[in-house]
UniProtKB/TrEMBL annotation:
Protein name: Homoserine dehydrogenase
Active site as annotated: K203
Source species of the chain: Halopseudomonas laoshanensis
Family to which this protein belongs: Belongs to the homoserine dehydrogenase family.
Pfam families, per the entry: ACT, Homoserine_dh, NAD_binding_3
NCBIfam families tied to this protein: PRK06349.1
Domain of life the protein comes from: Bacteria
Length: 434
């Protein structure tokens, strides 16, 4: 049987890792796929010194690969929304299968891409778009197919997790650790996507669609970053028995789907609370299986290549199957996707950690408690510290029971309007992940 020919578009860190894994493990891969897999052409602006390309043809024109009639599978590793979208749609129009690691492309344009692929009877595989080397998409889409998925919660950005780990373990400031993360190559020169939750929201959008059978709706995801967190918040969380993680959370409710990324306090004894450094982890709760945890490298050349090559093998295995009987892109048959809405953040219910900087005057705590009580917000525990020497302000830390976000927003507005309260409050949501 003749080899399946693939074209790699992009030879950066992940593209180079993919080429090397395909070459190094060629025999093992062929045994699994049932056919040899050959890299027929590469499109790259710059060669990767980590790759020994030999006689593999290289071009700087990505569409030369896309339009090459010999290529069966196009591997898109360019990134971004623009050229990558054109590459994928043109490959599909040419009747080629596509493998991509591009979470932004899938989260924003996936509905359009999957519709085009279904029309042409080709596959678009995207395991590497979420959590790098962790096969979380296959686990949710196939391994947990018998379950009604109730919720998904994940540490799905290694940069943010590295920063929070260093802040907790070494008492360092956010800015200090971010600078190191950039020096180590964990964070980009512009770290906005990582530290403000946009990267995680791309990934969470994909997971939620697969878990709940809803269209991709990145524009409805709530995002909140970690740049305002302080080492004091990390210490106070520990005092209450919690750790702060930058979580992506998707939960099915009777009213709709919660889709949110934000700093979250979780009990310190949860396994996911002990995922440190640049590692990723995803918890999935199904009605039959209960809670399951998937842990591993969320990025890196060969960790991500592991998922990309697994997708290539899956595509090769199904080249001769009836397109109507393949695993659906978003786990559910396209005509069976649900119209369950994504809830606005104000309608989400969760518990809260509040850090309030109050002036050292009698009766302040009573005013705070009164404002919370008037809005039906019950206090679970409270911690009042000594006045801080530099500004004379008293930190008050409050843990609340679960309440609608809108009620908490109203309470925070009222608290910040008090003369006795200095500056904005710190609000962090709390999840038990039972």
């Amino acid at each position: 049987m003749k080899p399946v020919k693939v074209g790699i578009c992009g030879l950066g860190t992940v593209g180079g890792g993919t080429f090397n894994v395909l070459q190094r493990n060629a025999v093992e891969i062929a045994r699994r796929a049932g056919r040899d897999i050959e890299v027929a052409q590469i499109a790259a602006r710059h060669l990767n010194p980590a790759c020994s390309l030999g006689a593999t043809p290289v071009t700087d024109d990505v569409f030369e690969v896309v339009n090459n009639p010999e290529i069966d599978i196009v591997i898109e590793l360019i990134g971004g929304y623009g050229v990558a979208r054109e590459v994928v749609l043109q490959a599909i129009a040419n009747g080629k299968h596509v493998v991509t690691a591009n979470k932004a492309l899938i989260a924003v344009h996936g509905n359009e891409i999957f519709a085009a692929a279904s029309e042409k009877g080709v596959m678009v595989a995207f395991e590497a778009s979420v959590a790098g080397g962790i096969p979380i998409i296959k686990a949710v889409r196939e391994g947990l197919a018998a379950n009604q998925i109730d919720w998904v919660a994940g540490i799905i950005n290694g940069t943010g997790n590295f920063i929070l780990t260093e802040m907790r373990d070494k008492g360092r400031t956010f800015d200090d650790v971010l600078a190191e993360a950039q020096a180590l190559g964990y964070a980009e020169a512009d770290p906005t996507f990582d530290v403000e939750g946009i990267d995680a929201a791309h990934k969470l959008t994909i997971l939620a669609s697969i878990a709940f059978g809803i269209p991709l709706q990145f524009d409805k995801a709530y995002t909140e970053g970690i740049s305002k967190l302080t080492t004091a918040d990390v210490r106070y969380a520990e005092a209450f028995g919690y750790r702060i993680k930058h979580l992506g959370i998707a939960r099915r409710t009777s009213d709709g789907v919660e889709l949110r990324v934000h700093p979250t306090l979780i009990p310190a004894d949860r396994l996911i609370a002990n995922v440190n450094g640049v590692m990723n982890a995803v918890m999935v709760n199904g009605d039959a299986v209960g809670s399951t945890l998937y842990y591993g490298a969320g990025a890196g050349a060969e960790a991500t290549a592991s998922s990309i090559v697994a997708d290539i093998i899956d595509v090769v295995r199904t080249l001769t199957t009836d397109p109507n009987n393949r695993v659906p892109h978003l786990a559910f048959q396209a005509h069976s996707l649900s119209d369950l809405p994504v809830l606005p953040m104000g309608e989400v219910e969760t518990a809260y950690y509040l850090r309030i900087q109050a002036k050292d005057r009698p009766g302040v705590l009573a005013k705070v408690a009164s404002i919370l009580s008037e809005r039906g917000i019950n206090i679970e525990s409270i911690l009042q510290k000594e006045a801080e020497e530099q500004d004379g302000l008293v930190p008050i830390i409050i843990m609340t029971h679960r309440v609608l976000e809108q009620k908490m927003n109203d309470a925070i507005d009222a608290l910040e309007a008090l003369d006795d309260i200095a500056g904005p409050l710190m609000r962090i949501r709390v999840e038990q992940l039972n």
